[in-house]
């Protein structure tokens, strides 16, 4: 099996009406008996027997029609005669035009233009063509995926340091380090943007628990919340027990929706870029460069806060090697201070720390609002109700299904909305009633349209009142 193929089980629903030729209808469009509920009947009656009583609107509409060999035809604006079709006939014509031997699965408007060009007409022609195109299962399965966001941004701002952390894993990393580390676990504080990271060999839940205890709780205290993705090591029973023991919220984003844990993803990119530039001769020594990377990151000014992570945490910048090699004014001034003056200077800095953090919070809020305004301009509202039938995108994007390869569909299903969760997330269930354990973001769902052959629209004939003139 090719490497880019994903082996998975795809449930195939058996169609009761699989194609145009097996729907119990012949392709030839011949004259059929005109019944009383046919939209053509009042017009044909008036044209054949104009002296009989008839409604005014029927008489007005009849000016655009004439009888031709016992068939009703419409006179178009360009003087072309279009044969008028009833329900059974126009369903055959739409089926053959859209998905027949010469059908190219066109959109509704183009399909309507083709049918007019072929010389057919009925009052709700455009609407029916659009509905037929929407209901085509092949078109729905292979349709494009909407990249625009489906709900407005919900920015996360923690008003104080180390109350909320975002966690994620980098990896699997190749080549592995000389100590066989294959992953990096990264945690980022929402307020200060302080980053803790550690190379690990495996992604077991015990590794994650040890990291949280040693790198977060023992250094910064118990947080209010930790946000992760839905990796198996993050949602294990041991992790849930730990969250219950320490009384912090363990929040998970939906699969394949990195925006929900954007802080962690942003930190990952910066760390990877710094390490990549530090490695020259031996890429297997990347685990030794991790501590230097964190130091460089913590002592760099961040645009979101306007301060370095070190200064925002301790209210003064770290002493860097260059300040010792080329003595700065700060170092020279400190060397001249006596013990009491030095203590007073440190206390003054600590008193100013709260004011600095309040200023930082205001900058964070202003920055988040600006980003939200730009993000929300791209939003295409999309929501679903419980019990609604939907398609689900095949994830990850671009995955090839074994046996289909290049011809793999982009959507699978249909599924049923079982539960509406927060922030645009949903829980699905199969038509057999099996509920999916993992939620899915609404961005990866789209509405399911039944085919016109199976929907109520096939059973109701457009009446004469739907005539558009």
Automatic annotation (TrEMBL):
Q: Which domain of life is it from?
A: Eukaryota
Check the record and name the SUPFAM superfamilies matching this protein: Ribonuclease H-like (SSF53098)
Q: Name one GO molecular function term.
A: nucleic acid binding
Q: Integrase catalytic domain spans which residues?
A: 157-329
- InterPro entries noted in UniProt: Integrase_cat-core, Integrase_H2C2, RNaseH-like_sf, RNaseH_sf
**A GO BP term, please?**
DNA integration
Q: What is this protein called?
A: Integrase catalytic domain-containing protein
Q: Which organism is it from?
A: Prunus dulcis (Almond)
UniProt lineage = Eukaryota, Viridiplantae, Streptophyta, Embryophyta, Tracheophyta
């Amino acid at each position: 099996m090719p490497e880019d193929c994903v082996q998975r089980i795809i449930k195939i629903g058996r169609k009761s009406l699989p194609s145009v030729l097996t729907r119990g209808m012949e392709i030839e469009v011949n004259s059929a008996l005109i019944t009383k509920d046919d939209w053509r009947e009042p017009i044909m009656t008036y044209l054949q027997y104009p002296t009989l009583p008839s409604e005014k609107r029927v008489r007005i509409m009849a000016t655009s029609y004439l009888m031709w060999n016992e068939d009703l035809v419409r006179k178009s604006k360009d003087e072309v005669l279009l044969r008028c079709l009833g329900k059974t006939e126009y369903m055959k014509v739409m089926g053959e035009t859209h998905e027949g031997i010469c059908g190219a699965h066109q959109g509704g408007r183009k399909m309507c233009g083709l049918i007019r060009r072929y010389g057919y007409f009925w009052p709700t022609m455009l609407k029916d063509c659009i509905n037929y195109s929407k209901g085509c299962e092949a078109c729905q399965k292979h349709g494009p995926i909407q990249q625009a966001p489906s709900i407005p941004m919900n920015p996360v701002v923690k008003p104080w340091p180390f109350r909320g952390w975002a966690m994620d894993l980098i990896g699997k990393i190749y080549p592995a380090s000389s100590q066989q580390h294959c992953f990096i676990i990264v945690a980022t504080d929402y307020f200060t943007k302080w980053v803790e990271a550690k190379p690990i060999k495996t992604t077991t839940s015990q590794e994650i628990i040890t990291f949280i205890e040693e790198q977060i709780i023992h250094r910064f205290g118990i947080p209010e919340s930790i946000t992760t993705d839905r990796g198996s090591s993050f949602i294990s029973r041991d992790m849930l027990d730990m969250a219950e023991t320490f009384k912090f919220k363990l929040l998970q984003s939906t699969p394949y929706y990195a925006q929900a844990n954007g802080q962690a993803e942003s930190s990952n990119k910066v760390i990877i870029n710094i390490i990549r530039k530090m490695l020259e001769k031996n890429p297997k020594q990347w685990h030794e460069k991790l501590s230097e990377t964190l130091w460089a990151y913590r002592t760099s000014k961040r645009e979101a806060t306007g301060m370095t992570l070190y200064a925002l945490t301790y209210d003064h910048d770290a002493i860097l090697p260059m300040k010792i090699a080329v003595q700065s004014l700060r170092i020279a001034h400190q060397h001249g201070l006596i013990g009491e003056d030095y203590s007073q200077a440190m206390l003054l800095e600590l008193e100013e720390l709260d004011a600095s953090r309040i200023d930082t919070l205001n900058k964070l809020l202003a920055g988040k609002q600006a980003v939200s305004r730009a993000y929300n301009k791209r939003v295409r509202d999309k929501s679903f109700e419980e019990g609604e039938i939907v398609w689900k995108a095949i994830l990850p994007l671009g995955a090839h299904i074994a046996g289909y390869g290049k011809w793999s569909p982009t959507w699978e299903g249909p599924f049923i909305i079982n539960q509406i969760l927060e922030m645009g997330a949903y829980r699905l269930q199969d038509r057999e009633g099996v509920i999916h354990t993992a939620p899915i973001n609404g961005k990866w769902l789209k509405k399911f349209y039944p085919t016109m052959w199976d929907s109520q629209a096939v059973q109701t004939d457009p009446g004469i009142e739907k005539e558009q003139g």
